[in-house]
Amino acid sequence: MTALHDRLLAGFAQAFGGEPELVVRAPGRVNLIGEHTDYNDGFAMPVAIGQETRVAFRPGGTGLRVAALDFAEDDAFDSAAPQRAGGGWRDYVRGVVDELVRAGISVPPGQLAIAGSIAKGTGLSSSASLEVAVARVLLDAAGERMDPVSLALLAQRAECDFVGVRCGNLDQIASAATTRGHALLIDCRTLALRQIAMPADVAVMIVQSGVVRGLVDGEYNQRRQECERAARTLGVPALRDVDEGMLDEACGRLDDLAFLRARHVCGDNRRTREAARALASGDLVAMGALMRESHVSQGRDFGITVPHTDVLAALMNEAIGEDGGARQTGGGFGGAVVGLMRQDRVAAVREAVLAVYRTPAGDVPEICIEVPSDGAGPVG
Ligand code: GAF
């Protein structure tokens, strides 16, 4: 099927013998625009990508035995009991099991193998895709159905409660609820979703800066606290309830840092809604301008770009020209830069990046062209 699938089946056979009964895939995502807006009840617009996590399951035995093939590590625990966090990849699995048990699902005992093609720390949501894949395979094995958004929210709770990242719902919804060939406009408060067809001649390019980041390092939660402080001072439930005009009028009430954080969030909420309209009408010039503005705002106001992603985004924007744009994507502090461009610009942009950009280790960057994929589901 794919190299990942073959690796998963071979790893399952080696760890547990024989074959799985169920295989599920859940994609990573690249966020086109709307960053750090999700936990402010705002808007984001991701696409699901071809890089994904696959999990294979066979019911039987007592307890859950888990083999994480990418780490050559395993875990074993009672799948019917509440779980305790212990650190590392195990928390993503145990956290999901814990949430399923809390939701009244009778998680079957069995063997579970996990393999993925999303590199960690690259801003493409390897952790959300793992959570969503594990939740979906265990629900399927239990004979239970859950709609994609409820499944995503369950996975998000697992990350918040077990891993300790107070993330929003963007990554899990993107992994669970996207549709092939479409970007997904998410209203992170109402959970209204709008699928937006990608224009046929538009390419999504992801370039890895080579600066690896993690969300657990405190900066992410700190940004969230700063946004919550700004909302409290402004007397609103979340920054979603403030637009840029209101913010300008209220700026005297906010400390400088809270004002800057709020300006980014309010700006990206507006830009994301405008971007959805631009993409839906195939207006890549408008879409590109919004992406460039969003990148600037992430650096100037939100303090989450780094010199390498600034250089890379500038280089890509120059090579793309007016018809499209590029910006750092994901939680920030490195990771990937996403570019949207006409298909006929891909070769020139790739060439420009490879000629000039080097990762902190001095390597040429990884570049891939992504075709927006379907959200999580069974394979085969
Ligand atoms: C990370 C988080 F997990 C998401 O919830 C979101 O906040 C994103 O950073 C930034 O937009 O991926």
Class by alpha and beta content: alpha+beta
- How many strand units? 12
Strand content: 15-25%
Major sheet, described briefly?
A: 8 strands, mixed
Distance between the termini: 9 Å
Helix content: 40-55%
Uncertain parts: none
Sketch the topology as an H/E string, one letter per element: HEEEEHEHHHEEEHHHHHEEHEE
Output the CATH topology of the domain at 3-194: Ribosomal Protein S5, domain 2
Pfam families: GalKase_gal_bdg, GHMP_kinases_C, GHMP_kinases_N
Domain GHMP kinase N-terminal: 92-176
Protein name: Galactokinase
Domain GHMP kinase C-terminal: 276-357
Secondary structure blueprint with pairings:
Elements: H1 3-16, E1 22-33, E2 43-59, E3 64-68, E4 73-77, H2 90-102, E5 110-116, H3 126-141, H4 148-163, H5 170-177, E6 182-187, E7 193-197, E8 202-208, H6 219-234, H7 244-250, H8 256-280, H9 284-300, H10 307-320, E9 324-329, E10 336-342, H11 346-356, E11 367-370, E12 377-378
Parallel strand pairs: 3-5
Antiparallel strand pairs: 1-2, 1-12, 2-5, 2-6, 3-4, 6-7, 8-10, 8-11, 9-10
The structure holds 2-deoxy-2-fluoro-alpha-D-galactopyranose (GAF).
